[in-house]
Amino acid sequence: MSQDISRRRLLGTTLAAAGAAVGASALGGIGRARALPGDTVDAIVVGGGLSGLAAAKSLVAAGASVVVLEARERAGGRVHNISSPKLGATLDAGAEFIGPTQNHIAALAREYDVRTIPTYNQGDSIFWNSGQSSRMPAALPLPLQAETLQAGAGLARAQADALAGFPVGEPWKHPNARYLDSLTWEQYSHQIATTSTARALMQVAMSAPLSVRPDEVSALYFLNYIAASGDENNPGTLIRLLSTDDGAQESLFEGGAALIPLRMARALGDRMVYNAPVRSIDFTSEIATVTSTAGTFRARKVIVAMSPAISDQIRYSPGLPAARIGITRGYHMGAVSKFAALYRRPFWRDKGLSGQVYGNGRPIDVTFESYAEDRHILMGFISADAMRRLDRAPESQIVRECIGNFVDYFGPEARDFIDHGIYKWDLDPWAQGGPVAVSSPGTLTTYGPALRAPVGPVHWAGTETADYWTGYMDGAVRSGKRAAQEVLGSLN
């Protein structure tokens, strides 16, 4: 929307159409309006995760009237804090890290007074492969530690492929897109590397951030993921994607990352409607009717701020174009849980270990030292097939297997944990996995432009639709801002 569209014009449209009352709010200086079922507003945002909240925040700042419909009883989406059962310590159950070039989420953290603390990264990290462990300096990212030079060379080639004129956010425009999109990451790795160690290293480099098997994801998708790990002034690199120091895992949020969306939602006040899963969106060229369990709402525009893999749970009328349907069917969620064990002291540090592990073939294949007030935490990801196997397992079995992995990695002291926490994203009905939806081979080159293309008054957000930092909190915020600008422009 141009700067000439005033707050008066947008709110005037809403007042005339619905008789909505707009008053001043004490929450962050943002205007507050209660929208009731049947009212017509400028925009409805479906989804109260970071992308939806960022969209709503931008729209409200421009003077638009907004309703946010969130299926859960909380804001934040895949950014969520939980408490340990015994101690009540805050644990990051979802997204938690922030690093250089993630400027959009960093700006929100400053605005809402959420401080960061550095991720512990001293001593050595562990690479676990086929039952064997090897130590590497924690200051080095995974690509620089290889038992064979070929592994490092293979990852370097992946890096070169990602950066060779890569159209970030539009990978289907890459000159070699069709070929790269015809391969899985596993096939791509086998073309580059000829030893099992080299292939394992390349596959860990992919599975660590995506939580999928290498035969589940398009090579083009992950190359775009690498290229997206930067910003408009700093090209994405594999080193930045996988590193702690100067990388995507550089810092944690004190008090948990979920403080940011919770404070954003509080500032939006009565615009937030919880326990309101959307069942259908019926639209014409001028108006959309959104039906949720909390009632039916009307708006000139709708932003669906959800993963494309689950956005098809909503019924659309008229039906969506074939290309958009192809996107929703070609994307699927990774499989992941986060497991955290709390200890009285960080015994791994005494052994010169950072608390970081990268590996494969175990229930927990990636670990970090995490933070919860004054407690010491080992946090691990249960990913891909291991997560699918343990989806319905008793919690006692999951704890036993995860602690067993910690013992293998860090020693028998890992058995002396004082509390634990676990969150199964696969069983969350409004996420159905995590941390991000990935595309199968052929999806991006066949349907890619439909990922963000509006359908009538319906626009799309979510970290999967971001240009830079897709899959991360920063990408979620970027996507929400972009969708809001689309809506504001079309309201002119």
TrEMBL record:
Keywords: Oxidoreductase. Substrate binds at F381. This is FAD-dependent oxidoreductase. The keyword Oxidoreductase applies. It comes from the Bacteria. It comes from Gordonia aquimaris. PANTHER family: AMINE OXIDASE. GO terms for molecular function: oxidoreductase activity. Belongs to the flavin monoamine oxidase family. It holds the Pfam family Amino_oxidase.
